[in-house]
């Protein structure tokens, strides 16, 4: 079975501090991995995706994520948090042999403290 | 800008009164999806259309139906809404069902059931 685990349903950081949102996946085959951001009362916006090219993926708004097969992880980072980064973040996995089924994590709510 | 549009953004209905949610896209994508997202939970796929082919998830209740009259539009019909159907409903599209095809989400419709 495929699954995604996001450790920490709520993360708080100070403005300017490092943002680290954790995502671990379980998949029997190398998956494709995605991070989405959801602002209040809005849909999901793609931040970045890993599709078996470079393991370090750069996305929008200064975010990046690194695929680590040995750790089955795809953690999202940003060097310096901004107030506008406060949102819900979802990690999603799509196993590479099962068509277009997405499996979302339960989300991490990021709070940025001024 | 090419985009995914959902109308209305907020919908209020009465218990048992049929309701229809609308999604349109200007991306000319082949695949359209409907997700249900309850408060503080991950989006849950209800069904998707690849062109005119309808694909229902195994655990989607019969109360939920969908129509796709043309490439641009897709509707979600809830025949007899219950209190448990109150949620955000997200529409998404993708170019195809290839592993690398990203899903693009609309802003969502928040459904309230009285």
The global form of chain A is: globular
Question: How many helix segments of chain A?
Answer: 0
Number of helices of chain B: 0
Largest sheet of chain B: 7 strands, mixed
The global form of chain B is globular
> How much of the residues of chain A is beta strand, in percent?
over 45%
- Going by helix content, strand content and strand pairing, the class of chain A is mainly beta
Distance between the termini of chain A: 41 Å
Beta-strand percent range of chain B: over 45%
- Proportion of helical residues of chain B: under 10%
The overall pLDDT of chain B, averaged over residues, is 92
* Number of DSSP-assigned strands of chain B: 11
For the termini of chain B, the CA-CA separation is 36 Å
Largest sheet of chain A: 6 strands, mixed
What's the layout of helices and strands?
The complex is a heterodimer of chains A (114) and B (114).
Chain A: E1 3-5, E2 10-14, E3 19-21, E4 24-26, E5 31-38, E6 44-50, E7 56-58, E8 64-68, E9 73-78, E10 87-95, E11 103-104, E12 108-113
Parallel strand pairs in A: 2-12
Antiparallel strand pairs in A: 1-4, 3-9, 5-6, 5-10, 7-8, 8-9, 10-11, 10-12
Chain B: E1 4-7, E2 10-13, E3 19-25, E4 31-37, E5 44-50, E6 53-56, E7 64-67, E8 73-78, E9 87-94, E10 104-105, E11 109-113
Parallel strand pairs in B: 2-11
Antiparallel strand pairs in B: 1-3, 3-8, 4-5, 4-9, 5-6, 7-8, 9-10, 9-11
Can you put this structure into words, describing what you see?
The complex is a heterodimer of chains A (114) and B (114). With 114 residues, chain A is mainly beta. Chain A has no helices and twelve strands. Chain A has strands at 3-5, 10-14, 19-21, 24-26, 31-38, 44-50, 56-58, 64-68, 73-78, 87-95, 103-104, 108-113. In chain A, the strands form three sheets. In chain A, strands 2, 5, 6, 10, 11 and 12 form a six-stranded mixed β-sheet that branches. In chain A, strands 3-9-8-7 form a four-stranded antiparallel β-sheet, with no helix packed on it. A two-stranded antiparallel sheet of chain A has the order 1-4. In chain A, a hairpin with a 5-residue loop joins β5 and β6. Chain A is globular and about 40 Å long. By secondary structure, chain B is mostly beta strands. Chain B has no helices and eleven strands. Chain B has strands at residues 4-7, 10-13, 19-25, 31-37, 44-50, 53-56, 64-67, 73-78, 87-94, 104-105, 109-113. In chain B, the strands form two sheets. In chain B, strands 2, 4, 5, 6, 9, 10 and 11 form a seven-stranded mixed β-sheet that branches. The N and C termini of chain B lie far apart (36 Å).
